[in-house]
């Protein structure tokens, strides 16, 4: 399975968890999108540094675009493949959803 497919699956699973399974509906709030934008800026900075220096590399057959290093374009943002944004989104969303769900459960409102 390609990195692209896994990234897409991760995003779908995270959204289903938020909207249908746990029903925290985090992604429907303005607060989420502001927080995510801040997190995304940090993610792009770290990913850019790691991939731009070739500390982390990707198989060109497993990602969109090619394995050619460039800052922007060819399905890359800040040197990292766009799939990293999907994985980052899913990881952050699952963390926030879990945190909210556990907090509500501990408070006895779930």
Automatic annotation (TrEMBL):
It comes from the Bacteria. The keyword Transmembrane helix applies. Keywords: Membrane, Transmembrane, Transmembrane helix. The chain crosses the membrane at residues 6-26, 33-50, 85-103. This is Lycopene cyclase domain-containing protein. It comes from Flexivirga caeni.
């Amino acid at each position: 399975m390609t990195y692209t497919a896994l990234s897409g699956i991760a995003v779908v699973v995270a959204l289903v968890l938020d909207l249908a399974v746990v029903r925290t509906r985090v992604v429907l709030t303005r607060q989420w999108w502001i927080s995510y934008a801040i997190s995304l800026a940090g993610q792009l900075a770290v990913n850019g540094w790691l991939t731009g220096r070739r500390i982390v590399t990707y198989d060109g057959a497993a990602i969109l675009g090619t394995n050619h290093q460039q800052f922007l374009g060819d399905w890359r943002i800040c040197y990292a493949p766009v799939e990293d944004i999907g994985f980052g989104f899913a990881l952050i969303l699952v963390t926030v959803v879990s945190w909210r769900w556990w907090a509500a459960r501990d408070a006895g409102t779930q």
